Amino acid sequence: MTGPDPIDLLAVGDLLTDEERLIQSTVRRFADERIRPHIADWFERGVFPVRELAPELGALGLLGMHLDGYGCAGAGAVAYGAACLELEAADSGLRSFVSVQGSLAMRAIHAFGSEEQKQQWLPGMAAGELIGCFGLTEPDFGSDPAGMRTTARRKGRGGTSRPEGGGDWVLSGSKMWITNGSASDVAVVWAQTEQGVRGFLVPRGTRGFTATDVHGKLSLRASVTSELHFDEVVLPDDAVLPGVSGLRGPLSCLNEARYGILWGTVGAARDCYQAALDYSKSRVQFGRPIAGFQLTQEKLVEMALELEKAHLVAWRIGRLKEAGAARAAHVSFGKLNNVRSALEIARSARTVLGANGITTAYPVLRHANNLESVLTYEGTSEIHTLVLGEAITGTAAYR
Asked: Domain named Acyl-CoA oxidase/dehydrogenase middle: which ranges (predicted)?
């Protein structure tokens, strides 16, 4: 009998169906052939070729793959998770692009848009011909989106302000840390109105709408991150997402994206662990590979334990999601645990690689830097702790 796979000691991969494994292997092959040869250079230069890669990702069926109809694949939750794992094993920026496109922008239109809006945007977005972004976070309001200052007011065509019915909408404000922002053909923007928070579709080129890229990032460098500005942007009535009002809309989309994160971070962790394991077998010190030293083996064992636990957490939440039994607290559990585990694995792996670990020749510090952003975005570790605290005690402690 052969021993266990050192990268998957508990054979968690065997829990996937044949179709899920095929999807995972297809995405892994794409990442190996199309992303890995270039990602270190993209990260170092701070670029991500969105327009070049989006049609390729669309051709694989990865954009909005867990949605039904309109050119979307309609894949199950675990299949989508396995795809996110392989995307983030290449780079968090790649998985972020797919998450924002599918779980945020497309999901918002799919869940809350009119049939006309769905037909206008979703097929092109699924094919990667159109890019979307999701504007919720503001410079002063991240964890507390209810305090957003971006507003939309009704304006009669004759210039008279009116709270309800007829006329155009006028959108004013700004959004910050928006993935895909400047590359997008349409922005899904959430704003305060007299009827509560509403979602608006703002096409590229709309007068008064500008997107400015954020520079100087030390994390998620292979990703487009932007600030969106809305200077009295006039929108027609059919720009509003009619199917939802209040924060339930954007928060439900965020929960979808967080689900992708709890799988994706397993991929980043696996890539770091594998790099450390391979390096330890080839790096010779004191006359033998460092894999033969007890302290190195302890590090590798701890990484393997955390990796498999995170993988099992992701799989279990995926099956709950497919059964319709997953709750927001389950997703918070997964994001909080798996990002934390992935960060620890990345940091430990860097110590195995020594000075080589700080270069782009190896993926470890790139993953570690990216994971610092993943720890914070789409719900900080503090917020997810409080979500779980409320689930456990029945008492909210946000304020």
From this structure: 133-233
* Residue where the block lists tokens 């009002």: 245
Asked about 378 being catalytic, the answer comes back as yes
- Give yes or no on whether 132-245 and 249-393 have one common fold: no
Tokens coding 398: 């946000």
> Residues 6 or more apart from 79 whose CB is under 8 A from it?
19, 20, 23, 24, 65, 66
Would you place residue 33 in the very low, low, confident or very high pLDDT band (cuts 50, 70, 90)? very high
CATH topology of domain 12-126: Butyryl-Coa Dehydrogenase, subunit A; domain 1 (1.10.540)
Instruction: Please report which helix (H) or strand (E) contains residue 190, including its range.
Output: strand 186-193
In this structure, the chain runs to a length of: 399
Domain locations along the chain: 12-126, 132-245, 249-393
**368-389: pLDDT as tens digits:** 999 999 999 988 999 999 999 9
Q: Tell me the C-alpha distance between 3 and 108, whole Å.
A: 46
Nearest by Cα to 327 from 250, 388, 376: 388
Dihedral, CA atoms, 104, 380, 178, 214, nearest 10 degrees?
Answer: -160
Q: Tell me the per-residue pLDDT of 293-348, one tens digit each, with 9 for 90 and over.
A: 999 999 999 999 999 999 999 999 999 999 999 999 999 999 999 999 999 999 99
CATH number of the 132-245 domain: 2.40.110.10
Of 322, 378, 382, 390, the active-site residue reads 378
Question: Does domain 249-393 correspond to CATH entry 3.40.50.2000?
Answer: no
Question: Residue 308 and residue 313: Cα distance in Å, rounded?
Answer: 9
* 248 Cβ contact list (under 8 Å, min separation 6): none
- How far apart are the C-alpha atoms of 150 and 192, rounded to whole Å? 6
User: What is the residue whose two structure tokens read 């990216």?
Assistant: 370
Whether the CB-CB separation of 7 and 66 falls below 8 Å is answered with: no
